[in-house]
User: What shape does this take?
Amino acid sequence: MYCEGMDSTAKRSPGRPRSTMSHQAILAAAEELLVEHGFSNVTIDGIAARAGVGKQTIYRWWPTKADVILEVTAGKAEFAVPAEDRGGYAEDLRAFLSTAFTLSGDTHTADLLRGLMVESQRRADFGDRFRTTFLEPRRHAFAAITRRAAARGDLPPGPSPDTAADIVFGTLWYRLLTARPGFNEQLVEDLVRALT
Amino acid sequence: MYCEGMDSTAKRSPGRPRSTMSHQAILAAAEELLVEHGFSNVTIDGIAARAGVGKQTIYRWWPTKADVILEVTAGKAEFAVPAEDRGGYAEDLRAFLSTAFTLSGDTHTADLLRGLMVESQRRADFGDRFRTTFLEPRRHAFAAITRRAAARGDLPPGPSPDTAADIVFGTLWYRLLTARPGFNEQLVEDLVRALT
Amino acid sequence: MYCEGMDSTAKRSPGRPRSTMSHQAILAAAEELLVEHGFSNVTIDGIAARAGVGKQTIYRWWPTKADVILEVTAGKAEFAVPAEDRGGYAEDLRAFLSTAFTLSGDTHTADLLRGLMVESQRRADFGDRFRTTFLEPRRHAFAAITRRAAARGDLPPGPSPDTAADIVFGTLWYRLLTARPGFNEQLVEDLVRALT
Amino acid sequence: MYCEGMDSTAKRSPGRPRSTMSHQAILAAAEELLVEHGFSNVTIDGIAARAGVGKQTIYRWWPTKADVILEVTAGKAEFAVPAEDRGGYAEDLRAFLSTAFTLSGDTHTADLLRGLMVESQRRADFGDRFRTTFLEPRRHAFAAITRRAAARGDLPPGPSPDTAADIVFGTLWYRLLTARPGFNEQLVEDLVRALT
DNA sequence: TGCTAAGCGAGACGGTACGTCTTGTCTTCCG
DNA sequence: CGGAAGACAAGACGTACCGTCTCGCTTAGCA
Assistant: This one.
């Protein structure tokens, strides 16, 4: 994240290289504070103090505290869209929805996601990064389910894949943001029916 | 809004009554600043200064700057859900979606709605008021469309009315919050098909 | 008849009046920190914390931390030029020089004066205030000694009063700033001779 | 200045020798920045950037930015005390005072001297170096005037040579630091009279 | 007419976090 | 090893809002 030369032939830039220790300490501190005090109570000063790091070191590498937390979040496996084949489009959909709704029922997770979404509204530039590194990858992973269904030949004459993604993620985020997150059997079934 | 004595037999409370002029000046100032600087750059200090009013006068009547803006918003007709009967569920749906998507394509409106949603995440108490006075009424208005369809007998075997509302408003808000608001023919048609 | 506030005293400005408690607490905190940590280690944050006061309250009333300390200093009697009549110009001069040199021999006092002089170099606006509220009053007090000598008729044909002030205060400050403060019999006698 | 091997039989120390180019570039950069932005706005980072040099290279050879500037200053002829014999103590004194007051009337020079004096207050170690390499040599040069007068036999029964130096330099610095530098006929004459 | 009660403008207050700045040290690679 | 580059810990700075408070003044109904 925010690394320039990623290829193996990368010419080292001159000067002292970025400190891996500080990098890790910052992410670790951010994660701890996230759990302890919640998204909106995490501060740059707090992260710096906890990580034993100068504030400037954070500002040098992340434009915003939300970017730090986004990097923390991006490193978590639990946000991956489940990919295993359940045998049919409806089953895949059900598995995805069930996982997603359950995950967003977790207090800490819900707070984290809400916080990221809020920040993405307040800072346009972070909004771009949030969409690019978090939202879009998940849409793509969801598209894989649709693609698999098409390959299987059981893609129903429902909405287009793009609309399907909007409906699914829209419903998830809407319930998250209106304080009605969490799993709901009826809702999952209705969504599956609407999309198939 | 936030007035105590609502019943017709209301005994006048003693002391100086609330100043209508200040009330109006505050709402007007808030609306101006909203247009000029955008939701997140509106401050209580700013409203007070513009309205020529003490800050306390604002805090006395509204718990939060978002509540002021919510009252400004509530006074606008443009957010009403279209109610006229188009002859069928699909047509009603299309009319509603088209209006809503077009409205949220307006920059100022989008900023306003995003701002309210953001604030509803940051202050649980405002969140409640936002849901009660803004989101829920619109869900109810939407339910009226479904109810009319049922009365007409053309309600399709689609998702339950509640899920339908989640899908419709979820998709609207999701696109608004991910910077993809505005009308989209394909999306509207797909939504109508998914819900019918 | 009952007349309200018709007295000549200034008309109260509107709004909450300045808090005397905060004012005093800030000056007291500044003085304590001055003694404990020395001029250059006093910070606005430190004063605010010690005084239990918001930083803005300091910035509202003093442009610079040096102004706070200048006000602390201005309130101290020890910096007054001794005024009692010793009977002759030479004796008055000796009394003044001896007091001044002895005073500047005190570590805390020397640090304080050096700090003020340093700050007066770094911020032109504070420099003006320092000269106006500290240096000039002392020059005037010194001039009183000369005036008294003239009245007495024993003013010698030495340098003009203004030059005398430059010589006396110049020598005092020069020795203070070159780390050679404190009383020195020979120096005092030489100065007296040069000025008489 | 801060060079290790000074004696002519100096064994070359191992490793890469100090780069003369960097040395000169640093002094040149410091001087330019001094003129352009004034003493207090010169920073180590700024000098390093302008000189195209690493900060460490500066810190390796000078303890403080003030030491860099002190070396720049030391290289300037204009700060030399005029030494030619004017025929008498009073004339020598007048020549010296006139030169010094005129010099300190130059804006850049005054800023430079003030800056050095300020830094000498803030860093005790630099203060020592400032006194040793700048102030003391000038006192000695001034003493030469007194010595010449003694040799000539026209040394007046005024203050001791040491006090004379304190008075002269004290007055100069005092006027410089209180923003009243520059030549002043009356002052010069009064000083000459006081010292003779 | 005077009393009581609350609203009002003004603006100071205690706080919190921000993002910037400078200092002096350190860590890398290159010549 | 010296030097260029630049990251690093530390911590003060001045600003921006927040939500609360304290003034004196105004505006009402009630006595």
